[in-house]
Automatic annotation (TrEMBL):
This is Dihydrolipoamide dehydrogenase. Pfam families: FAD-depend_C (PF21688), FAD_binding_3 (PF01494). Residues 269-474 form the FAD-dependent protein C-terminal domain. Residues 84-116 form the FAD-binding domain. It comes from the Bacteria. Coiled coil: none annotated. It comes from Bacteroides stercoris.
Length: 528
């Protein structure tokens, strides 16, 4: 027999199966003789009060063992002789599109400008060591996309639980821990993600799909308002309907679309900084305990949001026990982001701290002046702004990957920091007056936001934290407009704008969900 129970237990109980069994026996009246094993179905931490509890949904197996797997397997058959669909980009959008195409009996051909996920790692190391960014192989470009060397957080605001579960199950089938199906805030970790991505690639190739690395799409082949395929920098063309999942950093793709009259529109973004605290400080604040997280709790998370002068100011992509990484995708840029390993064991906890920016905000004189590129195309204005801010940041960072930084409380007091705290950011930090050179539209709102967050959470606004500039790639600055039913571009048949770069996702899971949807839409076009 199987019984399910809702438990509210101390962290040390939740961490140990034997203690859970004892709890069920003592508190829930389960017979010690009958209980064979337990399985945790859901787990979340309740840190609102001084005493921390873990809420669990537990399945107890009485006089039997589990027959079902911890995750649901998808069947992938051979598609070698099936019609092909071109998938541009091997980020989560492209990879999940490819896997879904196989399920539907279509042959995915992936074209990816960057290297495979292992070789890519060497280029990431060079950013810190030699201060060089390979424009085709970096934190944004390469197998696994922007999600590969990331935190691997898998939560999403998507309300469609079924779609989310499917993505998580596919990750498990390819080697992710089944704990991602259990935790309220699931997370794979940057050390585990590459293996999972390789396994996904092996499934695709094993079923007869193709994956072409170091092959960049340079143009769409368009005939009579229909996309027939792509041209690449290797000279090879690939023919078929195109799922365009190139991510938010493929600025050459946006430029090509704008220059060739393909309908796109400017989209709101959020920009700001990475804020890095000692992890022990965040643990003490969030777990209300001056001894920190103790043995059984993970590095603590936080989430802040407020409105300042009509714009949202909020924390974004928080990485407890993580690292701040240099996420530029080309020369003369500094862009920061965050990642963490599966154990979230680093000495720092970081988060993006960003201010919402709408296309109409660029009418503001101060922000308009940031744009050096002549605004020949207002659809690209938000992208020009990102570029201008990233370049300014690079100049302030000594024209290398060393990032300009300021202590948090100094920033709110408009004071240059005479030194900086230790940081996880490998290329190094340079003390810089961010309050002075960041556009006041952003700096003033961030400063007021920090003061509010300091009131919500005592100790958060501190000079022990460093703000590191700049975080600009929170989402796509452009939407590649598509029909809401066919998911094809509003004019071009056979083009499926997909994932974050097209403006239809904001994270690994939502990009994966959108990839699946685009594959289904391509299937409807080809198999109708
Ligand atoms: P991308 O992942 O950007 O993939 C696009 C792919 O297209 C890339 O591989 C690129 O090389 C390729 N490409 C681009 N142009 C071309 C071309 N012309 N020809 C061929 N290939 C091309 N999200 C989360 O949900 N959780 C996290 O913890 C998280 N942490 C992050 C940490 C970092 C450091 C970064 C950079 C991002 C993080 N994100 C996180 C965001 C997440 O990675 C993205 O939302 C997600 O990867 C978007 O998926 P995508 O497939 O739409 O695009």
């Amino acid at each position: 027999m199987i019984q399910e129970y809702q438990l509210r237990v101390l962290p040390e109980v939740a961490a140990n199966e034997q203690r859970i069994k004892e709890y069920l026996i003592q508190e829930k009246g389960v017979s010690a003789r009958d209980i064979t094993t337990t399985r945790i179905l859901k787990r979340s931490i309740d840190a609102r009060q001084r005493t921390i509890f873990v809420n669990l949904t537990v399945r107890a197996y009485l006089n039997e063992l589990p027959k079902e797997k911890e995750y649901q397997e998808t069947v992938y058959n051979d598609v070698s002789d099936k019609p092909q669909v071109i998938v541009v980009g091997a980020g989560p959008g492209g990879l999940f599109a490819a896997l879904r195409l196989i399920e539907l009996g279509l042959r995915p051909v992936i074209v990816e400008r960057g290297k495979n996920v292992r070789d890519r790692k060497k280029d990431l190391a060079l950013i810190g060591r030699e201060q060089t960014v390979n424009p085709e192989s970096n934190y944004s470009f390469g197998e696994g996309g922007a999600g590969a060397y990331s935190d691997g957080k898998l939560y999403t605001r998507s309300k469609k639980r079924g779609n989310v579960d499917k993505i998580l199950n596919v990750f498990c089938q390819h080697g992710a821990s089944s704990s991602i199906l259990v935790d309220a805030h699931p997370h794979i970790g940057t050390d585990k993600l590459p293996r999972v991505i390789e396994n996904m690639r092996n499934t695709i190739i094993g079923c007869g799909g193709e994956v072409h690395f170091e092959t960049r799409m340079d143009a769409l082949i368009i005939e009579n308002d229909e996309v027939k395929g792509i041209e690449t920098d290797t000279g090879r063309t690939f023919l078929g309907p195109v799922i365009l999942a190139t991510g938010h950093s493929a600025r050459d793709v946006y430029r090509w679309l704008a220059a060739n009259g393909v309908e796109i529109e400017a989209k709101g973004i959020a920009v700001g900084v990475r804020l890095e605290h000692p992890a022990s400080l965040i643990d003490r604040i969030q777990y209300h305990n001056r001894n920190g997280r103790g043995k059984y709790l993970p590095a603590a998370e936080y989430s802040f949001v407020t409105q300042v002068d009509g714009r949202g100011v909020y924390s974004f992509c928080m990485c407890p026990g993580g690292f701040v990484v240099p996420a530029a995708s080309g020369p003369q840029q500094i862009v920061v982001n965050g990642m963490s390993p599966s154990n979230r064991g680093s000495r720092w906890s970081n988060s993006g701290m960003v201010v919402e920016l709408r296309p109409e905000d660029l009418e503001n004189k101060e922000l308009r002046m940031m744009n050096e590129e002549p605004a020949f195309n207002s659809q690209l204005n938000m992208m020009y702004f990102q570029e201008a801010l990233e370049r300014l940041c690079w100049q302030q960072g000594n024209m290398k990957q060393t990032a300009p930084a300021q202590r948090m409380a100094d920033f709110t007091r408009k004071k240059l920091s005479y030194d900086l705290p230790e940081s996880s950011y490998a290329p190094g930090l340079v003390s810089s007056p961010l309050h002075f050179w960041m556009p006041p539209f952003i700096a003033d709102r961030l400063s007021k936001g920090f003061q509010q967050f300091g009131k919500y959470s005592h100790g958060f606004l501190t000079n022990e934290a460093a703000m590191i500039g700049v975080e600009t790639r929170t989402s796509a600055p452009v939407r590649i407009v598509r029909d809401k039913d066919t998911l094809q571009h509003i004019r071009l048949k056979g083009l499926f704008p997909c994932g974050e770069g097209a403006g239809y996702a904001g994270g690994i899971v939502s990009a994966g969900i959108d990839g699946e949807r685009c594959a289904e839409a391509a299937g409807r076009l080809l198999l109708q």
